[in-house]
Amino acid sequence: RGVVKGINTITKISRDFDLMYSFAMRSHLEVAIAGKRTKTPVALDLVNIVRHGLGRRALQAAARLATLTVANSKASADVLGERPAIRIIHPGIDRNRFHPGLRDESLYAELSGGVERPLVAIIGRIDVRKGVQVLIEAMTLVRGPGAESRVIVVGEAGTGPTEFADQLEVDALEQLGDRVLFTGRRSDVPDIMRAIDVLVMASVAEPFGLSALEAQACRAAVVGSNSGGLVEFVEHDVTGL
Question: What is the CB neighbour count within 10 angstroms for residue 120?
Fold first, then answer.
């Protein structure tokens, strides 16, 4: 009932526009159907790797109806199967903000706890799919000089229940103690990129991985999971691991 209402509402307003653009997964099908009804051109922007099931079938139906479909990576586009009308446009970053430079020593002291040691950061939403727990577990296994590294977790829980993020922080502090720091959401991410040594993207299926691109622009080393859109710009042993 909610979907039908959404389609009817969008259909009414679509006649006033020359183009409708949908960015949110939950709106793609509604916008595409409404555009087809009123012959209004529709552009869909895919930024998710959608799992098999109803959601993927709905997305494929929306893409068939849309005038143009754009994806942020080949990984995001692949969920549609063979569809020649889709275009892949990798996201860009603001090079005025993300660029190489000297680290801010006061920020480094804050992040490192006043101890000279390597900093390994993971930046983004804290949920199961982002793999923060994978990095925490991996750091408990590190031996040698790398065992002195400190993990910096920048971000907060996404919308909805925060139990996972809350429990993860408790568990991480228990396992790593002073070797882990949860900063919450920060507005100084470019400065953090210039202060750290390694940026990790541990997502199981990352549609693109903008943080990795930002880290590369700041000349921080990048380690990413071998999946999703990351492999499209993190070349193993060349631009990252």
Answer: 25
Strand 68-71 and strand 150-154: the pairing is unpaired
From the list 90, 45, 70, the residue with the least C-alpha distance to 229 is 90
Alpha carbon 169 to its chain centroid, in Å, reads 20
Contacts for 3 with CB less than 8 Å, ≥ 6 apart: 29, 30
pLDDT computed for residue 27 by the predictor: 92
Segments of the chain scoring below 70 in pLDDT: 1, 83-84
pLDDT value of position 210: 94
Query: What is each CA distance from 200 to 27, 171, 240, in whole angstroms?
Result: 31, 19, 10
How high is the pLDDT of residue 83?
Answer: 64
Q: What whole-number distance in Å separates Cα of residue 160 and Cα of residue 150? A: 29
Alpha-carbon gap, residue 31 to 21, rounded angstroms: 8
> Could you give the CA distance from residue 28 to residue 219 in angstroms, rounded to a whole number?
36
Q: Residue 1's pLDDT is what? A: 58
How does DSSP assign 16-58, residue by residue?
T-S-EEE-SGGGHHHHHHHHHHHT--EEEEE-S-PPTTHHHHH
**CA angle, corner 169, sides to 230 and 108, nearest 5?**
70
- Measure Cα distances from 102 to 190, 219, 229 in Å: 11, 11, 29
Cα separation, 193 vs 150, in Å, equals: 14
Q: Which residues contact 179 (CB under 8 A, 6 or more apart)?
A: 139, 148, 149, 150, 151
* Cα–Cα distance for residue pair 191/100, rounded to 1 Å: 10
Type of residue found at 106? S
The whole-number pLDDT of residue 65 equals 93
